[in-house]
Specification:
This protein is α/β, with parallel strands linked by helices and 469 residues long. The chain has helices spanning 6-13, 39-48, 80-96, 111-117, 149-158, 183-194, 209-213, 216-224, 240-246, 256-267, 318-328, 348-351, 354-364, 382-391, 393-400, 450-459, and strands at residues 15-18, 24-27, 30-33, 58-61, 99-101, 126-129, 143-146, 160-163, 167-174, 202-207, 233-236, 278-283, 290-292, 300-302, 343-346, 374-377, 403-404, 425-428, 444-447. The model has no long low-confidence stretch (mean pLDDT 98). Pfam families: Aconitase. Its cofactor is [4Fe-4S] cluster.
Length: 469
Protein backbone atom coordinates (compact mmCIF):
# COMPACT_ATOMS: atom_id res chain seq x y z
CA UNK A 1 0.00 0.00 0.00
CA UNK A 2 1.22 3.50 -0.80
CA UNK A 3 2.22 5.79 2.04
CA UNK A 4 0.73 9.20 2.75
CA UNK A 5 -2.83 10.37 3.31
CA UNK A 6 -5.87 8.14 3.51
CA UNK A 7 -7.04 9.79 0.32
CA UNK A 8 -3.88 8.79 -1.53
CA UNK A 9 -4.02 5.22 -0.23
CA UNK A 10 -7.68 4.65 -1.11
CA UNK A 11 -7.35 6.34 -4.49
CA UNK A 12 -4.33 4.22 -5.43
CA UNK A 13 -5.98 0.99 -4.27
CA UNK A 14 -9.02 1.70 -6.46
CA UNK A 15 -7.16 2.87 -9.57
CA UNK A 16 -7.94 0.67 -12.56
CA UNK A 17 -6.02 2.62 -15.20
CA UNK A 18 -4.77 6.03 -16.23
CA UNK A 19 -6.83 7.20 -19.18
CA UNK A 20 -5.45 9.01 -22.27
CA UNK A 21 -7.06 12.18 -20.90
CA UNK A 22 -4.84 11.95 -17.84
CA UNK A 23 -7.84 11.11 -15.64
CA UNK A 24 -7.94 8.05 -13.43
CA UNK A 25 -10.35 5.22 -14.08
CA UNK A 26 -11.46 4.61 -10.50
CA UNK A 27 -13.25 1.51 -9.24
CA UNK A 28 -16.37 2.30 -7.21
CA UNK A 29 -16.94 -0.04 -4.28
CA UNK A 30 -20.47 1.14 -3.42
CA UNK A 31 -22.95 2.88 -5.72
CA UNK A 32 -25.99 4.49 -4.11
CA UNK A 33 -28.96 5.49 -6.27
CA UNK A 34 -32.32 7.21 -5.80
CA UNK A 35 -35.29 8.13 -7.94
CA UNK A 36 -34.11 11.50 -9.31
CA UNK A 37 -30.82 10.87 -11.13
CA UNK A 38 -31.23 7.18 -12.00
CA UNK A 39 -34.15 6.91 -14.51
CA UNK A 40 -32.22 8.56 -17.34
CA UNK A 41 -29.11 6.48 -16.53
CA UNK A 42 -31.06 3.23 -16.72
CA UNK A 43 -32.67 4.40 -19.98
CA UNK A 44 -29.19 4.95 -21.44
CA UNK A 45 -28.21 1.39 -20.47
CA UNK A 46 -31.27 -0.01 -22.24
CA UNK A 47 -30.57 2.04 -25.35
CA UNK A 48 -27.12 0.43 -25.55
CA UNK A 49 -28.24 -3.06 -24.55
CA UNK A 50 -26.02 -2.95 -21.44
CA UNK A 51 -26.42 -4.82 -18.16
CA UNK A 52 -25.37 -3.98 -14.62
CA UNK A 53 -22.45 -6.40 -14.11
CA UNK A 54 -22.15 -5.92 -10.31
CA UNK A 55 -25.70 -5.33 -9.04
CA UNK A 56 -24.71 -6.26 -5.47
CA UNK A 57 -22.56 -3.11 -5.37
CA UNK A 58 -25.55 -0.83 -6.01
CA UNK A 59 -28.22 0.00 -3.42
CA UNK A 60 -31.36 2.05 -4.08
CA UNK A 61 -33.91 3.98 -2.06
CA UNK A 62 -36.44 6.78 -2.58
CA UNK A 63 -36.01 10.06 -0.76
CA UNK A 64 -36.22 13.29 -2.77
CA UNK A 65 -39.77 13.13 -4.08
CA UNK A 66 -41.58 11.12 -1.41
CA UNK A 67 -44.22 13.00 0.60
CA UNK A 68 -43.54 13.16 4.34
CA UNK A 69 -47.18 13.37 5.45
CA UNK A 70 -48.61 9.91 5.97
CA UNK A 71 -51.87 10.54 4.10
CA UNK A 72 -49.94 11.71 1.03
CA UNK A 73 -47.79 8.57 0.82
CA UNK A 74 -50.60 6.43 -0.54
CA UNK A 75 -49.81 5.09 -3.99
CA UNK A 76 -50.18 6.27 -6.63
CA UNK A 77 -48.87 9.67 -5.49
CA UNK A 78 -51.02 12.68 -6.29
CA UNK A 79 -47.99 14.17 -8.07
CA UNK A 80 -47.89 12.13 -11.29
CA UNK A 81 -44.25 13.03 -12.02
CA UNK A 82 -43.20 11.78 -8.59
CA UNK A 83 -45.19 8.59 -9.17
CA UNK A 84 -43.52 8.09 -12.55
CA UNK A 85 -40.07 8.49 -10.97
CA UNK A 86 -40.66 5.96 -8.20
CA UNK A 87 -42.24 3.47 -10.64
CA UNK A 88 -39.22 3.82 -12.94
CA UNK A 89 -36.86 3.03 -10.05
CA UNK A 90 -38.96 0.09 -8.86
CA UNK A 91 -38.96 -1.41 -12.35
CA UNK A 92 -35.25 -0.80 -12.96
CA UNK A 93 -34.21 -2.37 -9.65
CA UNK A 94 -36.32 -5.43 -10.42
CA UNK A 95 -34.99 -5.66 -13.98
CA UNK A 96 -31.31 -5.31 -13.05
CA UNK A 97 -31.39 -7.17 -9.71
CA UNK A 98 -30.58 -4.20 -7.46
CA UNK A 99 -31.38 -4.10 -3.74
CA UNK A 100 -34.12 -1.52 -3.17
CA UNK A 101 -35.36 -0.02 0.10
CA UNK A 102 -38.85 1.15 -0.76
CA UNK A 103 -41.40 3.00 1.37
CA UNK A 104 -42.64 0.72 4.14
CA UNK A 105 -39.62 -1.58 4.09
CA UNK A 106 -38.50 -0.21 7.45
CA UNK A 107 -35.22 0.83 5.83
CA UNK A 108 -36.31 3.55 3.39
CA UNK A 109 -34.93 7.01 3.90
CA UNK A 110 -32.46 9.59 2.69
CA UNK A 111 -29.74 7.74 0.82
CA UNK A 112 -26.94 9.27 2.93
CA UNK A 113 -28.70 8.26 6.14
CA UNK A 114 -29.60 4.67 5.30
CA UNK A 115 -26.23 3.52 3.94
CA UNK A 116 -24.32 4.27 7.16
CA UNK A 117 -27.05 2.93 9.45
CA UNK A 118 -27.14 -0.37 7.51
CA UNK A 119 -23.34 -0.70 7.70
CA UNK A 120 -22.99 -0.39 3.92
CA UNK A 121 -20.63 2.58 4.30
CA UNK A 122 -17.23 1.42 5.52
CA UNK A 123 -13.68 2.79 5.81
CA UNK A 124 -11.36 2.58 2.82
CA UNK A 125 -14.20 2.41 0.29
CA UNK A 126 -14.87 4.47 -2.79
CA UNK A 127 -18.54 5.52 -2.89
CA UNK A 128 -20.50 7.35 -5.56
CA UNK A 129 -24.07 8.61 -5.80
CA UNK A 130 -25.96 10.93 -8.12
CA UNK A 131 -26.34 13.44 -5.31
CA UNK A 132 -24.02 16.27 -4.31
CA UNK A 133 -24.02 15.40 -0.60
CA UNK A 134 -22.41 12.00 -1.08
CA UNK A 135 -19.42 13.50 0.75
CA UNK A 136 -21.33 12.52 3.93
CA UNK A 137 -19.83 9.01 3.78
CA UNK A 138 -16.32 10.38 4.21
CA UNK A 139 -17.05 10.45 7.94
CA UNK A 140 -16.13 6.76 7.92
CA UNK A 141 -12.79 7.21 6.17
CA UNK A 142 -14.28 6.48 2.75
CA UNK A 143 -13.72 8.75 -0.25
CA UNK A 144 -17.13 9.50 -1.67
CA UNK A 145 -18.24 11.59 -4.60
CA UNK A 146 -21.43 13.14 -5.87
CA UNK A 147 -21.77 12.45 -9.60
CA UNK A 148 -23.99 13.44 -12.53
CA UNK A 149 -26.51 11.33 -14.42
CA UNK A 150 -24.12 10.29 -17.20
CA UNK A 151 -21.66 9.16 -14.53
CA UNK A 152 -24.44 7.20 -12.80
CA UNK A 153 -24.78 5.40 -16.14
CA UNK A 154 -21.03 4.78 -16.26
CA UNK A 155 -20.94 3.28 -12.77
CA UNK A 156 -23.96 1.08 -13.44
CA UNK A 157 -22.37 -0.20 -16.65
CA UNK A 158 -18.73 -0.54 -15.59
CA UNK A 159 -18.46 0.01 -11.81
CA UNK A 160 -15.87 2.70 -12.58
CA UNK A 161 -15.61 6.48 -12.91
CA UNK A 162 -13.27 8.70 -14.90
CA UNK A 163 -11.97 11.31 -12.45
CA UNK A 164 -9.21 13.85 -12.01
CA UNK A 165 -7.45 13.37 -8.69
CA UNK A 166 -7.88 16.36 -6.38
CA UNK A 167 -5.28 17.75 -3.99
CA UNK A 168 -5.68 17.18 -0.25
CA UNK A 169 -6.12 19.92 2.34
CA UNK A 170 -5.94 19.11 6.05
CA UNK A 171 -8.61 21.11 7.89
CA UNK A 172 -7.70 20.96 11.54
CA UNK A 173 -9.96 22.06 14.41
CA UNK A 174 -8.71 21.73 17.97
CA UNK A 175 -10.29 22.18 21.39
CA UNK A 176 -13.63 21.51 23.03
CA UNK A 177 -16.84 22.92 21.60
CA UNK A 178 -18.70 25.15 24.02
CA UNK A 179 -22.22 24.17 25.16
CA UNK A 180 -24.80 24.97 22.48
CA UNK A 181 -22.23 24.66 19.69
CA UNK A 182 -22.65 21.66 17.40
CA UNK A 183 -21.05 19.99 14.39
CA UNK A 184 -23.27 22.08 12.09
CA UNK A 185 -21.76 25.24 13.57
CA UNK A 186 -18.26 23.87 13.00
CA UNK A 187 -18.77 23.23 9.30
CA UNK A 188 -20.62 26.53 8.75
CA UNK A 189 -17.68 28.27 10.43
CA UNK A 190 -15.17 26.49 8.19
CA UNK A 191 -17.12 27.38 5.05
CA UNK A 192 -17.46 30.98 6.23
CA UNK A 193 -13.71 31.28 6.72
CA UNK A 194 -12.49 29.36 3.63
CA UNK A 195 -15.31 30.38 1.29
CA UNK A 196 -17.74 28.46 -0.88
CA UNK A 197 -15.06 28.14 -3.56
CA UNK A 198 -12.15 27.65 -1.18
CA UNK A 199 -12.16 23.89 -1.57
CA UNK A 200 -12.29 23.75 -5.37
CA UNK A 201 -9.74 21.18 -6.52
CA UNK A 202 -9.33 19.70 -3.04
CA UNK A 203 -10.43 16.84 -0.86
CA UNK A 204 -10.72 17.94 2.78
CA UNK A 205 -9.25 15.79 5.53
CA UNK A 206 -10.91 16.85 8.78
CA UNK A 207 -8.49 16.39 11.66
CA UNK A 208 -7.68 17.66 15.14
CA UNK A 209 -9.01 17.02 18.62
CA UNK A 210 -12.44 18.49 17.92
CA UNK A 211 -13.21 15.95 15.19
CA UNK A 212 -11.58 13.15 17.16
CA UNK A 213 -14.11 13.79 19.97
CA UNK A 214 -17.12 13.86 17.65
CA UNK A 215 -19.59 11.02 17.29
CA UNK A 216 -20.06 9.42 13.88
CA UNK A 217 -23.27 11.33 13.31
CA UNK A 218 -21.52 14.62 14.06
CA UNK A 219 -18.73 13.70 11.65
CA UNK A 220 -21.34 12.92 9.00
CA UNK A 221 -22.81 16.41 9.41
CA UNK A 222 -19.41 17.99 8.78
CA UNK A 223 -18.47 15.79 5.83
CA UNK A 224 -21.94 16.24 4.34
CA UNK A 225 -21.35 19.95 3.79
CA UNK A 226 -17.84 19.64 2.33
CA UNK A 227 -19.34 20.20 -1.11
CA UNK A 228 -20.79 23.53 0.10
CA UNK A 229 -17.22 24.71 0.64
CA UNK A 230 -16.27 23.70 -2.90
CA UNK A 231 -14.38 20.53 -1.89
CA UNK A 232 -14.73 17.40 -4.04
CA UNK A 233 -15.14 15.35 -0.88
CA UNK A 234 -14.32 15.39 2.81
CA UNK A 235 -13.30 12.64 5.21
CA UNK A 236 -12.23 11.78 8.75
CA UNK A 237 -9.67 9.08 9.47
CA UNK A 238 -11.32 5.92 10.89
CA UNK A 239 -10.77 5.21 14.59
CA UNK A 240 -12.38 3.25 17.44
CA UNK A 241 -15.42 5.58 17.33
CA UNK A 242 -15.92 4.52 13.69
CA UNK A 243 -15.50 0.84 14.49
CA UNK A 244 -17.89 0.96 17.47
CA UNK A 245 -20.56 2.55 15.28
CA UNK A 246 -20.22 -0.11 12.57
CA UNK A 247 -19.95 -3.22 14.73
CA UNK A 248 -23.08 -5.36 14.57
CA UNK A 249 -24.75 -3.49 11.72
CA UNK A 250 -26.33 -5.60 9.00
CA UNK A 251 -23.65 -5.29 6.33
CA UNK A 252 -20.64 -4.88 8.62
CA UNK A 253 -18.16 -7.78 8.67
CA UNK A 254 -18.79 -10.48 11.29
CA UNK A 255 -16.62 -12.80 13.38
CA UNK A 256 -13.03 -13.24 12.20
CA UNK A 257 -13.80 -11.03 9.21
CA UNK A 258 -14.50 -8.19 11.64
CA UNK A 259 -11.02 -8.38 13.20
CA UNK A 260 -9.39 -8.46 9.78
CA UNK A 261 -11.51 -5.52 8.63
CA UNK A 262 -10.57 -3.38 11.64
CA UNK A 263 -6.88 -4.10 11.04
CA UNK A 264 -7.20 -3.10 7.40
CA UNK A 265 -9.32 -0.03 8.16
CA UNK A 266 -6.68 1.10 10.63
CA UNK A 267 -3.95 0.68 8.02
CA UNK A 268 -5.59 3.13 5.60
CA UNK A 269 -5.45 6.01 8.07
CA UNK A 270 -3.24 8.89 7.04
CA UNK A 271 0.34 8.36 8.13
CA UNK A 272 1.73 10.62 10.85
CA UNK A 273 4.26 12.02 8.36
CA UNK A 274 1.79 12.36 5.48
CA UNK A 275 2.30 15.43 3.33
CA UNK A 276 -0.63 17.69 2.46
CA UNK A 277 -1.07 20.21 -0.30
CA UNK A 278 -2.39 22.70 2.25
CA UNK A 279 -3.12 22.88 5.98
CA UNK A 280 -5.51 25.23 7.78
CA UNK A 281 -6.07 25.31 11.54
CA UNK A 282 -9.05 26.56 13.55
CA UNK A 283 -9.70 26.90 17.28
CA UNK A 284 -12.97 25.41 18.53
CA UNK A 285 -13.19 28.16 21.13
CA UNK A 286 -13.76 30.69 18.33
CA UNK A 287 -16.94 28.96 17.13
CA UNK A 288 -20.38 29.94 18.37
CA UNK A 289 -23.89 28.98 17.21
CA UNK A 290 -23.83 29.99 13.54
CA UNK A 291 -26.61 31.20 11.24
CA UNK A 292 -26.50 32.00 7.54
CA UNK A 293 -27.88 35.40 6.58
CA UNK A 294 -27.43 35.26 2.80
CA UNK A 295 -27.82 33.08 -0.28
CA UNK A 296 -24.73 30.87 0.02
CA UNK A 297 -23.64 28.63 2.91
CA UNK A 298 -20.55 30.83 3.23
CA UNK A 299 -22.63 33.85 4.21
CA UNK A 300 -22.83 32.89 7.86
CA UNK A 301 -22.21 34.66 11.17
CA UNK A 302 -22.27 33.85 14.86
CA UNK A 303 -25.69 34.32 16.42
CA UNK A 304 -24.40 37.26 18.49
CA UNK A 305 -22.98 39.05 15.43
CA UNK A 306 -24.49 41.51 13.01
CA UNK A 307 -24.88 41.06 9.26
CA UNK A 308 -21.64 42.36 7.71
CA UNK A 309 -21.60 45.62 5.81
CA UNK A 310 -20.09 45.79 2.33
CA UNK A 311 -17.01 47.52 3.71
CA UNK A 312 -16.35 44.62 6.09
CA UNK A 313 -16.21 42.10 3.24
CA UNK A 314 -13.44 41.16 0.83
CA UNK A 315 -13.88 42.85 -2.52
CA UNK A 316 -14.68 39.56 -4.24
CA UNK A 317 -17.58 38.91 -1.83
CA UNK A 318 -19.29 42.29 -2.16
CA UNK A 319 -21.37 41.73 -5.28
CA UNK A 320 -23.10 38.60 -3.98
CA UNK A 321 -23.54 40.27 -0.58
CA UNK A 322 -25.52 43.08 -2.20
CA UNK A 323 -27.60 40.47 -4.02
CA UNK A 324 -28.17 38.69 -0.70
CA UNK A 325 -29.25 41.85 1.16
CA UNK A 326 -31.88 42.45 -1.49
CA UNK A 327 -33.14 38.88 -1.78
CA UNK A 328 -33.17 38.12 1.95
CA UNK A 329 -34.66 41.52 2.84
CA UNK A 330 -32.06 41.88 5.57
CA UNK A 331 -29.98 44.98 6.16
CA UNK A 332 -26.20 45.22 6.63
CA UNK A 333 -25.42 45.96 10.25
CA UNK A 334 -28.63 44.28 11.42
CA UNK A 335 -28.41 41.75 14.27
CA UNK A 336 -29.25 38.24 13.06
CA UNK A 337 -30.72 37.35 16.46
CA UNK A 338 -34.34 38.43 16.58
CA UNK A 339 -34.94 37.87 12.85
CA UNK A 340 -38.54 36.69 12.57
CA UNK A 341 -39.17 33.30 10.94
CA UNK A 342 -42.26 31.63 9.47
CA UNK A 343 -41.27 27.98 9.06
CA UNK A 344 -38.93 25.77 11.09
CA UNK A 345 -37.63 22.57 9.47
CA UNK A 346 -35.63 19.88 11.27
CA UNK A 347 -34.37 17.10 8.99
CA UNK A 348 -32.27 16.46 5.83
CA UNK A 349 -29.18 14.35 5.11
CA UNK A 350 -27.21 16.91 7.12
CA UNK A 351 -29.24 16.83 10.31
CA UNK A 352 -31.99 14.19 10.21
CA UNK A 353 -30.34 11.55 12.39
CA UNK A 354 -31.34 10.37 15.84
CA UNK A 355 -28.75 12.49 17.68
CA UNK A 356 -30.00 15.60 15.84
CA UNK A 357 -33.56 14.88 16.95
CA UNK A 358 -32.44 14.33 20.54
CA UNK A 359 -30.73 17.73 20.69
CA UNK A 360 -33.73 19.49 19.19
CA UNK A 361 -36.08 17.69 21.59
CA UNK A 362 -34.09 19.01 24.57
CA UNK A 363 -34.97 22.54 23.43
CA UNK A 364 -38.59 21.73 22.55
CA UNK A 365 -39.38 19.88 25.77
CA UNK A 366 -41.77 21.81 28.00
CA UNK A 367 -42.09 24.65 25.49
CA UNK A 368 -44.59 25.57 22.78
CA UNK A 369 -44.10 26.48 19.13
CA UNK A 370 -44.71 30.22 18.84
CA UNK A 371 -48.01 31.43 17.41
CA UNK A 372 -48.06 31.59 13.61
CA UNK A 373 -45.02 29.35 13.18
CA UNK A 374 -45.15 26.13 11.14
CA UNK A 375 -42.65 23.69 12.63
CA UNK A 376 -42.02 20.10 11.60
CA UNK A 377 -39.57 17.30 12.19
CA UNK A 378 -38.68 14.85 9.41
CA UNK A 379 -36.61 11.79 10.43
CA UNK A 380 -33.88 10.92 7.95
CA UNK A 381 -35.02 7.31 7.62
CA UNK A 382 -37.70 4.90 8.69
CA UNK A 383 -35.14 3.44 11.11
CA UNK A 384 -34.49 6.86 12.66
CA UNK A 385 -38.25 7.39 13.01
CA UNK A 386 -38.64 4.03 14.76
CA UNK A 387 -35.74 4.79 17.12
CA UNK A 388 -37.05 8.27 17.94
CA UNK A 389 -40.53 6.92 18.67
CA UNK A 390 -39.06 4.21 20.91
CA UNK A 391 -37.43 7.00 22.94
CA UNK A 392 -40.60 9.10 23.00
CA UNK A 393 -39.05 12.00 21.09
CA UNK A 394 -42.07 12.23 18.82
CA UNK A 395 -44.31 12.85 21.84
CA UNK A 396 -42.05 15.69 22.99
CA UNK A 397 -42.23 17.34 19.58
CA UNK A 398 -45.97 16.85 19.18
CA UNK A 399 -46.68 18.18 22.68
CA UNK A 400 -44.69 21.29 21.77
CA UNK A 401 -46.67 21.81 18.57
CA UNK A 402 -44.27 20.39 15.98
CA UNK A 403 -45.59 18.16 13.20
CA UNK A 404 -44.05 14.67 13.29
CA UNK A 405 -43.48 13.41 9.74
CA UNK A 406 -42.43 10.35 7.73
CA UNK A 407 -38.89 9.85 6.37
CA UNK A 408 -37.64 11.78 3.33
CA UNK A 409 -35.66 14.75 2.06
CA UNK A 410 -38.67 17.02 2.63
CA UNK A 411 -38.12 20.78 2.51
CA UNK A 412 -34.36 20.59 2.06
CA UNK A 413 -34.95 20.92 -1.68
CA UNK A 414 -38.76 20.76 -1.93
CA UNK A 415 -39.10 18.22 -4.76
CA UNK A 416 -42.18 17.07 -2.84
CA UNK A 417 -45.19 18.76 -1.20
CA UNK A 418 -43.07 20.41 1.54
CA UNK A 419 -42.42 23.91 0.20
CA UNK A 420 -42.13 27.49 1.41
CA UNK A 421 -44.85 29.84 0.25
CA UNK A 422 -44.07 33.27 -1.17
CA UNK A 423 -41.29 35.06 0.69
CA UNK A 424 -41.60 33.02 3.89
CA UNK A 425 -38.40 32.78 5.88
CA UNK A 426 -37.27 29.37 7.08
CA UNK A 427 -35.05 28.32 9.95
CA UNK A 428 -33.63 25.13 8.47
CA UNK A 429 -31.26 22.39 9.57
CA UNK A 430 -30.54 21.53 5.92
CA UNK A 431 -27.46 22.34 3.83
CA UNK A 432 -28.31 24.94 1.18
CA UNK A 433 -29.76 28.43 1.35
CA UNK A 434 -29.72 29.15 -2.39
CA UNK A 435 -32.45 31.28 -3.91
CA UNK A 436 -35.60 29.19 -4.30
CA UNK A 437 -33.99 26.15 -2.69
CA UNK A 438 -36.92 25.38 -0.38
CA UNK A 439 -39.63 25.45 -3.02
CA UNK A 440 -40.55 29.12 -3.46
CA UNK A 441 -38.83 31.45 -5.92
CA UNK A 442 -38.81 34.14 -3.23
CA UNK A 443 -38.53 31.90 -0.15
CA UNK A 444 -35.67 32.66 2.24
CA UNK A 445 -33.56 30.14 4.15
CA UNK A 446 -31.48 30.57 7.31
CA UNK A 447 -29.24 27.54 7.93
CA UNK A 448 -28.50 26.53 11.51
CA UNK A 449 -28.23 23.51 13.81
CA UNK A 450 -31.33 21.46 14.74
CA UNK A 451 -31.19 22.83 18.28
CA UNK A 452 -31.11 26.37 16.90
CA UNK A 453 -34.10 25.56 14.65
CA UNK A 454 -36.01 24.33 17.70
CA UNK A 455 -35.08 27.53 19.53
CA UNK A 456 -36.41 29.60 16.62
CA UNK A 457 -39.61 27.56 16.59
CA UNK A 458 -40.46 28.18 20.23
CA UNK A 459 -39.52 31.87 20.19
CA UNK A 460 -40.65 32.80 16.66
CA UNK A 461 -37.29 34.28 15.71
CA UNK A 462 -33.58 33.51 15.49
CA UNK A 463 -32.52 32.89 19.08
CA UNK A 464 -29.24 31.94 20.71
CA UNK A 465 -29.98 28.38 21.80
CA UNK A 466 -27.61 28.82 24.74
CA UNK A 467 -30.25 31.02 26.36
CA UNK A 468 -32.67 28.07 26.41
CA UNK A 469 -30.39 25.21 27.42
Amino acid sequence: MSQGTLFDKVWDLHTVATLPSGQTQLFVGLHLIHEVTSPQAFAMLRERGLKVPFPHRTVATVDHIVPTQLQQRQRPFVDSLAEDMIVALEQSCQEFGIRFYNIGSGKQGIVHVIAPEQGLTQPGMTIACGDSHTSTHGAFGAISFGIGTSQVRDVLASQTLAMTKPKVRRVEVNGNLRPGVYAKDVVLHIIRKLGVKGGVGYAYEYAGTTFEAMSMEERMTVCNMSIEGGARCGYVNPDPITFDYLQGREFAPKGADWDAAVAWWTSVRSDADAEYDDVVVFDAADIEPTVTWGITPGQGIGVTETIPTVDELDEGDRSIAKEAYDYMQLAPGQAIAGTKVDVCFIGSCTNGRISDLREAAKVAQGRQVAEGITAFVVPGSESVKQAAEAEGLHEIFKAAGFEWREAGCSMCLAMNPDKLQGSQISASSSNRNFKGRQGSASGRTLLMSPAMVAAAAVTGSVTDVRELL
